[in-house]
Fold this sequence. Notes:
By secondary structure, the chain is of the alpha/beta class. The protein has five helices and eight strands.
Amino acid sequence: MPATLPQQILSALSGLTGQYHQLLLVVGLGRTGKSAALAELGRRHGLPPLNFNLALAARIHDLTKRQRRLRAAVMVEDAIVEHGGDVVFLDNTEMLFHPDLALDPLALLQSLARTRTVVAAWRGQYRNGILTYSEPSHPEHRSYDHPPVPIVMSG
Length: 155
Protein backbone atom coordinates (compact mmCIF):
# COMPACT_ATOMS: atom_id res chain seq x y z
CA MET A 1 0.00 0.00 0.00
CA PRO A 2 1.48 3.41 -0.96
CA ALA A 3 2.20 5.93 1.77
CA THR A 4 -0.39 8.62 2.40
CA LEU A 5 0.51 12.25 1.69
CA PRO A 6 1.01 13.04 5.41
CA GLN A 7 3.30 9.99 5.70
CA GLN A 8 5.29 11.14 2.65
CA ILE A 9 5.65 14.61 4.16
CA LEU A 10 6.86 13.21 7.49
CA SER A 11 9.34 10.97 5.72
CA ALA A 12 10.71 13.90 3.70
CA LEU A 13 10.91 16.06 6.84
CA SER A 14 13.22 13.56 8.49
CA GLY A 15 15.73 14.21 5.70
CA LEU A 16 15.82 17.96 6.39
CA THR A 17 17.68 17.72 9.69
CA GLY A 18 20.96 19.60 9.45
CA GLN A 19 20.21 21.08 6.03
CA TYR A 20 21.03 24.73 5.33
CA HIS A 21 17.41 25.41 4.30
CA GLN A 22 14.84 23.30 6.11
CA LEU A 23 12.16 23.80 3.46
CA LEU A 24 9.83 21.19 2.04
CA LEU A 25 7.37 21.97 -0.74
CA VAL A 26 4.13 20.04 -1.09
CA VAL A 27 3.34 20.54 -4.77
CA GLY A 28 0.13 19.85 -6.64
CA LEU A 29 -2.77 21.40 -8.43
CA GLY A 30 -5.90 22.50 -6.58
CA ARG A 31 -7.90 19.90 -4.72
CA THR A 32 -5.12 17.32 -4.58
CA GLY A 33 -4.95 17.02 -0.78
CA LYS A 34 -2.28 19.53 0.20
CA SER A 35 -4.45 21.44 2.69
CA ALA A 36 -5.92 18.29 4.20
CA ALA A 37 -2.46 16.77 4.67
CA LEU A 38 -1.09 19.93 6.32
CA ALA A 39 -4.16 20.15 8.57
CA GLU A 40 -3.75 16.51 9.63
CA LEU A 41 -0.07 17.00 10.42
CA GLY A 42 -0.91 20.19 12.28
CA ARG A 43 -3.44 18.36 14.46
CA ARG A 44 -0.99 15.54 15.15
CA HIS A 45 1.79 17.90 16.22
CA GLY A 46 -0.23 20.70 17.79
CA LEU A 47 0.94 23.08 15.06
CA PRO A 48 -2.05 24.33 13.10
CA PRO A 49 -1.27 25.38 9.52
CA LEU A 50 -0.89 29.08 8.88
CA ASN A 51 -3.38 30.31 6.28
CA PHE A 52 -0.83 32.50 4.65
CA ASN A 53 -3.21 34.44 2.40
CA LEU A 54 -5.27 35.61 5.37
CA ALA A 55 -2.24 36.49 7.48
CA LEU A 56 -0.60 38.55 4.74
CA ALA A 57 -3.80 40.17 3.45
CA ALA A 58 -4.51 41.55 6.91
CA ARG A 59 -1.05 43.15 6.99
CA ILE A 60 -1.07 44.73 3.51
CA HIS A 61 -4.70 45.83 3.37
CA ASP A 62 -4.13 49.52 4.16
CA LEU A 63 -0.78 49.90 2.38
CA THR A 64 -0.11 51.48 -0.98
CA LYS A 65 1.34 49.39 -3.81
CA ARG A 66 4.79 50.91 -3.17
CA GLN A 67 4.59 50.24 0.58
CA ARG A 68 3.55 46.64 -0.11
CA ARG A 69 6.65 46.07 -2.25
CA LEU A 70 8.95 47.66 0.28
CA ARG A 71 7.57 45.78 3.29
CA ALA A 72 6.39 42.46 1.83
CA ALA A 73 9.32 40.26 2.86
CA VAL A 74 9.35 41.64 6.41
CA MET A 75 5.57 41.21 6.73
CA VAL A 76 5.86 37.60 5.57
CA GLU A 77 8.50 36.86 8.18
CA ASP A 78 6.50 38.67 10.88
CA ALA A 79 3.43 36.54 10.11
CA ILE A 80 5.45 33.35 10.50
CA VAL A 81 7.20 34.49 13.68
CA GLU A 82 3.85 35.46 15.24
CA HIS A 83 2.44 32.06 14.31
CA GLY A 84 5.23 30.52 16.37
CA GLY A 85 6.86 27.13 16.50
CA ASP A 86 10.02 25.54 15.18
CA VAL A 87 7.96 23.96 12.40
CA VAL A 88 5.45 25.92 10.38
CA PHE A 89 2.95 24.47 7.92
CA LEU A 90 2.12 27.17 5.34
CA ASP A 91 -1.10 26.73 3.46
CA ASN A 92 -2.81 28.98 0.92
CA THR A 93 0.44 30.60 -0.20
CA GLU A 94 -0.89 32.24 -3.37
CA MET A 95 -0.26 35.78 -2.05
CA LEU A 96 3.48 35.14 -2.30
CA PHE A 97 3.08 35.25 -6.08
CA HIS A 98 1.10 38.49 -6.30
CA PRO A 99 2.85 40.82 -8.78
CA ASP A 100 2.33 43.88 -6.52
CA LEU A 101 4.61 42.32 -3.90
CA ALA A 102 7.48 41.68 -6.35
CA LEU A 103 8.74 38.69 -4.35
CA ASP A 104 10.70 35.65 -5.42
CA PRO A 105 8.51 33.09 -3.59
CA LEU A 106 11.02 30.25 -3.57
CA ALA A 107 13.92 32.42 -2.39
CA LEU A 108 11.73 33.93 0.34
CA LEU A 109 10.60 30.51 1.56
CA GLN A 110 14.21 29.33 1.62
CA SER A 111 15.18 32.37 3.65
CA LEU A 112 12.40 31.70 6.15
CA ALA A 113 13.55 28.08 6.41
CA ARG A 114 16.95 29.08 7.82
CA THR A 115 15.61 29.52 11.34
CA ARG A 116 12.74 27.02 11.37
CA THR A 117 11.39 24.10 9.38
CA VAL A 118 8.91 25.27 6.75
CA VAL A 119 6.48 22.96 4.98
CA ALA A 120 4.73 24.99 2.30
CA ALA A 121 1.86 24.15 -0.01
CA TRP A 122 2.73 25.10 -3.60
CA ARG A 123 -0.19 25.13 -6.00
CA GLY A 124 1.52 24.17 -9.21
CA GLN A 125 3.39 21.39 -10.90
CA TYR A 126 6.77 19.69 -10.82
CA ARG A 127 7.65 17.91 -14.05
CA ASN A 128 10.99 16.96 -15.56
CA GLY A 129 12.84 18.96 -12.92
CA ILE A 130 10.81 22.15 -13.53
CA LEU A 131 8.77 23.63 -10.68
CA THR A 132 6.03 25.95 -11.90
CA TYR A 133 3.31 28.13 -10.49
CA SER A 134 0.48 29.21 -12.79
CA GLU A 135 0.37 29.28 -16.58
CA PRO A 136 3.14 31.07 -18.52
CA SER A 137 0.74 33.77 -19.73
CA HIS A 138 -0.45 34.60 -16.20
CA PRO A 139 1.15 37.58 -14.37
CA GLU A 140 1.85 35.41 -11.31
CA HIS A 141 3.70 32.73 -13.30
CA ARG A 142 6.96 31.43 -11.85
CA SER A 143 9.23 28.70 -13.12
CA TYR A 144 12.29 27.18 -11.43
CA ASP A 145 14.65 24.77 -13.16
CA HIS A 146 15.76 22.01 -10.77
CA PRO A 147 15.04 23.90 -7.56
CA PRO A 148 17.35 22.94 -4.68
CA VAL A 149 14.51 21.95 -2.36
CA PRO A 150 12.83 18.64 -1.53
CA ILE A 151 9.40 18.23 -3.10
CA VAL A 152 6.52 15.95 -2.19
CA MET A 153 3.88 15.62 -4.88
CA SER A 154 0.18 15.59 -3.99
CA GLY A 155 -2.58 14.05 -6.05
